[in-house]
Write a structure and sequence with these properties.
2 domains; alpha/beta; 402 residues; Aspartate Aminotransferase, domain 1; seven-stranded mixed beta sheet; four-stranded mixed beta sheet; 18% strand; binds pyridoxal-5'-phosphate; 17 strands
Length: 402
Amino acid sequence: MTIVMDDVVAREARHVLQTYRRQPVTFVRGQGVRLYDAEGREYIDLLSGIGVAALGHAHTGLARAVSDQAQTLIHTSNLFFHPLQGQLAERLANLSGLPRAFFCNSGTEAVEACLKFARRYWYTKGEPRAEFVALDESFHGRTFGSLSVTSDEHYRKPFEPLLPKVTFIPTNDAGALMRAVTKNTAAIIAESVLGEGGIRPLTPAFASAINEACSKSGALFIADEVQSGLGRTGYPFYFKALGLRPHLVSIGKALGGGVPIGAALVSQEVADTISFGDHGTTYGGNLLACRAALCVLDELVGGGLLAHIGRVGQHVERRLLAIAASRPSLVKAVRGRGLMWGLDLTRDAAPVVPAALERGVVVNRTAETVVRLLPPLVITQAELDEGLDRLDAALGAVGAAA
Ligand SMILES: *Cc1c(COP(=O)(O)O)cnc(C)c1O
């Protein structure tokens, strides 16, 4: 079957709700870190579907696991037991230190669950606290609860009123945090590395302030690790590197390697306040999704992937700093950890994306001026070099046109 780009675009234009401004590329196949479009052009994928395809594309082990599971049993609902959910929860508990998991289908649902569990905790304590403290530049998702703790006016405005009593403070401002958190704060929520906000890691000083604010006020802390978790930064979770002590952790994106699954990881203290029927979902943690996630965790923990990310992560940092040094009028800052990087430009980064696609490399733009890199976690140094050479050429073209 030949796929004609114009037909794809025309059909979508008629029938798909126009919420996405897509790049004019139709990907039809992938292999490892490479994607192929309908015309057979090859691209190095330095974005992995926004940090999702952690094992790359068409990974043999994942493909086999998903296919085998699909031929055995895909879904039974949460009305019954199945053998995989407990296994996955146990593995996530060992990795995070939070003993219990609630499974859902996306990042926003994981955040939504954390917000509800925080409210439930205080309700059970007989001290119903409603307030949340969140960060400027935060992104936690698009459903009403997670949107309420997302700062971007552009996302929020058309849907107001949202949840009341959310206070936003400047990222990494410990003083502002200490002033904002009170005995009425149900929870503080923060990404360990702000992703959509432009790849901004929390500072160790701010992390200590979060721990201190929680002990002083009793407020819970929700670490949103949907983007930064599961190896992306070279750590299983970046909150651990920062010494943060979250009561709730949201994960998603990479967890299923492309099969939709998310989870809220919960401390025993919070878990003790949750009762049967408090929250639920039809699909959440079904056999297919759990099987995919178990396969991803096998690679991450057993396959030496974390050490690999540490190594290639240092290489990316060196290369990005060199690119920045060679283009001082275009690149203003390089931020990131592991395989999660942002090149902050002196101008709108939007033109870099099509220029990169033309040269066979996939990246995206976030927070207006930031070129974001979230390559598959399995990417080799040679593949990174090839991709970064193409990106550098794209930056050259954009810089020259400015
Ligand atoms: C992507 C993201 C979400 C939302 O995840 P979806 O799967 O798109 O709902 C939430 N929090 C963070 C930090 C994210 O990066």
